[in-house]
Specification:
Blueprint lengths: L4 E6 L7 E7 L2 E7 L5 E5 L13 E3 L2 E3 L6 E3 L15 E2 L1 E4 L2 E5 L9
Antiparallel strand pairs: 1-10, 2-3, 3-4, 4-8, 5-6, 6-7, 9-10
The chain binds FE2/S2 (inorganic) cluster.
């Protein structure tokens, strides 16, 4: 499985408690960096009405959607609290600051 990871840049390309996006043939994937420098990746599409999660507020290991405030776990992609819904997540590796994402989890190769 490890050979299926592809490089997507350096952790310093992402602000702490922020995100950047990578484009794939099937849509954008948001790559989040927490205040503790953990990195998570998931589809940049809220399960409620498609809000851009990459523009949401990162707090702890969760992100709040900028449109209607649904809170999504960065670890599981599941809505937290009373809300229901799930976002597809992708495994991310951090190796000496270099980030890579599991290619086998992607619908097609990232650009
Ligand atoms: S679109 Fe994200 S909470 Fe509504």
């Amino acid at each position: 499985m490890s050979s299926d990871f592809i490089a997507i840049g350096h952790i310093d390309d992402i602000p702490q408690r922020g995100a950047r996006c990578i484009n794939t043939a099937f849509g954008r994937i948001a790559v989040f960096r927490t205040a503790e420098d953990d990195v998570f990746a998931m589809n940049d599409r809220c399960p409620h009405k498609g809000g851009p999660l990459s523009q949401g507020l990162v707090h702890g290991r969760a992100v709040t959607c900028p449109l209607h405030n649904m809170v999504i776990s960065l670890e599981s992609g599941e809505a937290l609290g009373a809300d229901e819904g799930e976002v597809r997540t992708y495994p991310v590796r951090v190796d000496d600051g270099q980030l890579s994402i599991a290619l086998s989890a992607l619908p097609l190769a990232a650009e």
